Amino acid sequence: MASPALELKAVTRRFPARDRAAPPFTAIERLSFQVGEGEFVALVGPSGCGKSTVLNLVAGLDRPSEGEVFLGAEQVTGPNSHVGFMLQKDLLLPWRSIRRNVEFGLEARGLTREERAARIARELRRCRLTEFADRYPHQLSGGQRQRAALARTLAIDPALVLLDEPFSALDAQTKILLQRSFAQTIAASGVTTLLITHDLNEAVAMSDRILVMSERPGRVVEEITVGLPDRDNPVARQSMPRALELMRHLLHALHLDDRVDA
Ligand SMILES: Nc1ncnc2c1ncn2[C@@H]1O[C@H](COP(=O)(O)OP(=O)(O)OP(=O)(O)O)[C@@H](O)[C@H]1O
Ligand SMILES: [Mg+2]
Questions:
Q1: Which of 31, 161, 165, 167 fits a disulfide with 175 by CB distance 3.0 to 4.6 angstroms?
Q2: Which of 53, 88, 216, 219, when mutated, tests ligand 1's pocket best, judged by the most ligand atoms within 8 Å of its CB?
Q3: Whose C-alpha lies nearest to ligand 1, atom 9?
Q4: How far does CA 49 lie from the centroid of its chain?
Q5: What is the pLDDT, as a whole number, of residue 17?
Q6: Of 33-42, 126-135, 140-149, 247-256, which has the strongest mean pLDDT?
Q7: 198 Cα to the center of ligand 2, angstroms
Q8: pLDDT digits (tens, 9 = 90+) for 205-243
């Protein structure tokens, strides 16, 4: 059988306690999951349960204390060029035009000028930014900047895209528009995607499968197959009866339906 696109095998990450005499602090413990080729998986869980820690391990920016991370058949041992990483903040370079920002990740890849130009054109088109190619980041709206960041991420043809709360800094309406735009672009590219989000509606609307993490030390306590059609249309998905059922299920799984404390 082909390897999954991503696999975490019993991954534990401990951080040294601030007080050196105290025992180390366990952020995630024996965490295991797989993401299949072309699948869109959402990771949800309470604040501080280790979601960003997971992404850093997958991106190779951090190493597990125990356990292994595999990207396809290859073990992740450091940063690698097959993973595209996008955060809440767009991290576009303010002194470069949008076109040159999209070009940024391609510069060290040994592509010819023509190949680079073709990739940039493809992603700008896919992210509906062609007409903004020569603008600078400060001349774009927050939503357009996030689309430019996605174009830059996809331009490297990643085997896996990691999204860490990419919409959480946006207003509610822009967020809905951008979720749709991202869903369409990602579905069109077919890229394997792991999304971290606090927004349970977003997890339901955008993903094929949802992994629910426990409070720290984080482990996967539940896996939910979304089973909704039309992954490229999150708005339509949210109003389907099954979406409501999934929401109720998730609220319960995260113990949010029976808590009065905040
Ligand atoms: N480099 C580090 N050194 C020490 N502790 C860390 C480090 N990185 C993360 N932690 C701790 O590990 C735990 C998990 O952090 P992480 O950022 O992964 O949580 P999260 O689930 O992404 O939270 P949020 O939803 O608030 O973004 C937290 O308690 C955090 O303080
Ligand atoms: Mg986080």
A1: 167
A2: 53
A3: 53
A4: 16
A5: 85
A6: 33-42
A7: 9
A8: 999 999 999 888 889 999 999 999 999 999 999 999 999
pLDDT in tens, 128-153: 899 999 999 999 988 899 889 989 99
Which residues have a Cβ under 8 Å from the Cβ of 227 and sit 6 or more positions away? 242
Ligand number with the minimum distance to the CA of 218 = 1
Ligand 1 centroid from CA 39, angstroms: 26
* Sign of the CA dihedral with 120 first, then 145, 210, and 236 last: negative
Could you tell me where the DSSP H helices lie in 60-161?
A: 98-104, 113-126, 142-155
What average pLDDT does this structure show over 76-95?
Answer: 87
DSSP conformation class of 2: P
Residues 6+ apart with CB under 8 A from 255: none
Report the b/e string of 210-230 with b at 16+ CB within 10 A. bbbbbebbbbbeeebebebee
C-alpha of residue 51 to centroid of ligand 1, in Å: 8
Whole-Å CA distances, 115 to 97, 132, 168: 19, 20, 34
Contact by Cβ (8 Å): 41, 195:
yes
Nearest to 84 by CA among 69, 102, 64: 102
The pTM is what? Answer: 0.92
